[in-house]
Amino acid sequence: MSLRLGAHVEQNDPLAEAADRGANLVQFFLGDPQDYKAPKVAYADGAEALKVRAEAEGIDLYVHAPYRLNVATLNNRIRIPSRKLLQQTLDKAAEIGAKGVIVHGGHVGEDDDPEAGFDNWRKCIERAELPVPLLIENTAGGENAMARKLERIARLWDAVQGSGNEYVDRVGFCLDTCHFHAAGEDLPTVVEKVVAITGRIDLVHANGSRDAFGSGADRHSNFEEGEIDPAEIVAVVKAANAPVVVETPNGDHGQKADIDYLRSHLK
Predict the structure, then answer these.
(1) pTM of the full predicted structure?
(2) Distance CA 196, CA 39 (A)
């Protein structure tokens, strides 16, 4: 089985990071993931050089949107800047030839109607320009999250598909193994269930979990050191048949070991 395999890396020189891990795919931020500042390319030679060199080296680039983004919220002071920053991130990702932008599903307040959050997603996609694919990622915790549980993902997907955006086919799904484990969704059946909802999986975040099933905690671990059976992670990757980003810690038994583990078990 031949899949594109890579990791989340530092943004200053993602191509060197790819070489260090033996990867043909990398994901990174464009700026501070905890800020609303406009995205920027940290690569010293600029966006065009990064695009050209990545293509020459056969490295696929993915961009993760800032964590602060929440286009679902009813709070205007968060939702409006979030929409703006998401569009800026999509546009900047296009400049480097990225294969997609990954964004978390977000949430509404504890006492808010989740239907309002789904409608905010609809409005976001309705108005968005999509120069590259936008991949919505399932999330680990939050009782009023838009993309934690499968039934919420189904409502979110209905809303997005009803946006009327002529490029809505560029909105895809990113499946995170740690997040579904933390959300209390069974990994052995989750790919089939997601595809039944969305019709697609565009990217897999292959991560172990430091915490127990259903914990709601978003804490990634390396494959052989966490609470998820590594065989289940491999099975998800096989079933999804999509490019893979490893977002595990990069310590002594780091990302390269996890990439190598996947590669050896996907033969």
Answers:
(1) 0.97
(2) 34
